Amino acid sequence: MSLTGKVAIVTGSGRGLGLAYAQELARQGAAVVINDVDAATADAAVKTIVDPGGRAVAVAAPVGPTETADALVAAAVENFGRLDILVTNAGVLRDTVLWKMSDDDFDTVIGVHLRGTFTTVRAAATYMRQNEIPGRIICIGSPTGQRGNFGQTNYAAAKAGIVGMVRTWALELKKAGITANAVIPVAATAMTATVPYFAAAVEADAAGEPMPAFFRHDLGFGTSDDVAGLVAYLASDAAAGVTGQAIGIGGDRLQLWSHPEPVATAYREGGWTFEALHEGFADAVGELQSVGERFPALPADLQRPAPTA
């Protein structure tokens, strides 16, 4: 189970979920390349690993360009001699509804999340294949990419695309013994901190108190540390047989997301004309699929007033 002797890159690991992933990989014995756009933040993250006796270095650069991906792989090899694990976590949000979303809003999110995942995985997988290392590719998705979310056209597209790439990479890298999986985390982050529905959970987390059981069990909503264990497990030799999967984690809950499959199939001799669909669509497909996430009503003691402007 130990990751001793292994080397990992974690993009977007200066704070939040990414930092939790990096710290857990280090705790399990791996050397870690920390990445953040801000050098001071990256250096502070390195210190949280090095001070307790771990090994880490920082690369301060924006994820997306090929140059950053190459620099991350080079940092792992030059400082620690190899690369075994890549966690693509770097991300940015530009939330707004479709009719207000600018080209820059869209391109920025796609560039960091989707292109950034592609370029770093390409660089890491190339190194692993050339050096016959049965590496681990772990890409961070989101429930938004699985089900959609109001105001997140760009983010939903990027996160759905990441899962699609992971399934493809699992096929392409299988012969090399390299696994590729997506983790779908649900945790207290800067994004959820502003949502009134999660206020009681965020308050508890900020105070260092246990989150209410409703959040941890019923919603599968927890802390960054609750997610980090799955990342470290997927990085280990124990998970050599796990690839091409989208795995949800949060609070007390672990989930395996299904691959998209037809939920209804109907046939009509001669095909489905406009007229035939007009008459028979509802009977042919049955109940339509839901979109977006559906949360149960908050218990009264966990409700908080919405913040005022």
From TrEMBL:
According to the UniProt entry, its GO molecular function terms are: oxidoreductase activity
Specify whether Oxidoreductase is a keyword of the entry.
yes
InterPro entries, sorted: KR_dom, NAD(P)-bd_dom_sf, Peroxisomal_Beta-Oxidation, Sc_DH/Rdtase_CS, SDR_fam
* SUPFAM superfamilies hit by this protein: NAD(P)-binding Rossmann-fold domains (SSF51735)
Limits of the Ketoreductase domain = 6-189
Q: Which family does it belong to?
A: Belongs to the short-chain dehydrogenases/reductases (SDR) family.
Name by which UniProt lists this protein = Dehydrogenase
